[in-house]
Amino acid sequence: MRNAEDRAKHPIELFTDVAPRYEWMNTLMTAGRDQAWRRSILNFAQSTLEQKQPSRILDLATGTGDFPRLMAKKWPKAEIIGTDPNQAMLNQAIQSVDSYSKKIPSLKNVRWEIGRGEELNIESESVELVTIGFGFRNISEETRLDCVREVYRCLKPGGAFAILELGMPRPGLFRRFFSLLLFNVMPFFIGLFSPKDSYEYLAESIAKFPEPEKVRSMLELEGFIGFSPVALSGGLCWAFIGKKPTHFCP
Ligand SMILES: C[S@@+](CC[C@H](N)C(=O)[O-])C[C@H]1O[C@@H](n2cnc3c(N)ncnc32)[C@H](O)[C@@H]1O
């Protein structure tokens, strides 16, 4: 069993055991809200792009490919690149292409690549939209700003960075109730299906994730126009959008 420090160091490795069960566990833990949250942030991104269809999209921490599937359906002409540092998660994404390709033919054109969010193997100013769903939390506190900087570099002026992340509701009764659920009730149920390590990491990383305004400040620090964070399902999930300015602002 790893201690808290080790778990924080190995968020990539932790997903190897989880990969085959990731999607249904995610559905279970979010009470089926995860797909609606993903769809919401894609709609916010579309309005940030002033309703233009993005022609090239990069999805970081793509995992088993939930985002590329939605994107390929929403924007069938877009070139989509899904990257993740965990090969087991990426393998699930690649294997799922055949089963979805009748419903979503453009899914066959998605490019899957191994890669971390802090070092992007993508040319500067070459994509219109970068997304990261439930993955920004997994990038260490020390390197999160490197990720934001890299995304800024890769985006075309006017492009958007969309971060979807689990979080804590605003301070109050609901937050106290959710903390109780997260640390006292859920571990018992999740422990029935998943390694204890990965659930403990999930709960700790949600509780430690910066408050929404801090995430917006991180985006602004690297040059993005940061929009107000949007609370989804009462703040169990948060949507953050940064827009790369079209003109250089000194
Ligand atoms: C909870 S899954 C998210 C999967 C997917 N985006 C979704 O919407 O469900 C988190 C993913 O973050 C990836 N990850 C961990 N560390 C990372 C890093 N430094 N850069 C990019 N992705 C990372 C893991 O491998 C894992 O696949």
Question: Can you walk through the features of this model?
Answer:
- The model has no long low-confidence stretch (mean pLDDT 92).
- This protein has one domain: 3-Layer(aba) Sandwich (Rossmann fold), CATH 3.40.50.150.
- Helix 4 (34-48) packs across helix 5 (66-74).
- Helix content is 45%, strand content 18%.
- It is built from 10 helices and 8 strands.
- The longest helix has 18 residues, at 173-190.
- Strand 2, helix 6 and strand 3 form a beta-alpha-beta unit.
- Strands 1, 2, 3, 4, 5, 6, 7 and 8 form an 8-stranded mixed β-sheet that branches.
- With 250 residues, it is α/β, with parallel strands linked by helices.
- The chain has helices spanning 4-9, 11-18, 22-29, 34-48, 66-74, 87-100, 144-154, 173-190, 196-208, 212-221, and strands spanning 56-60, 79-84, 111-114, 127-133, 155-166, 225-226, 230-232, 237-243.
- S-adenosylmethionine is lined by residues 11-12, 15, 26, 60-63, 66-67, 84-86, 89, 116-118, 133-135, 138-139.
Task: Give the topology.
Layout: H1 4-9, H2 11-18, H3 22-29, H4 34-48, E1 56-60, H5 66-74, E2 79-84, H6 87-100, E3 111-114, E4 127-133, H7 144-154, E5 155-166, H8 173-190, H9 196-208, H10 212-221, E6 225-226, E7 230-232, E8 237-243
Parallel strand pairs: 1-2, 1-4, 2-3, 4-5
Antiparallel strand pairs: 5-8, 6-8, 7-8
Helix pairs in contact: 4-5, 8-9
Bound molecules: S-adenosylmethionine.
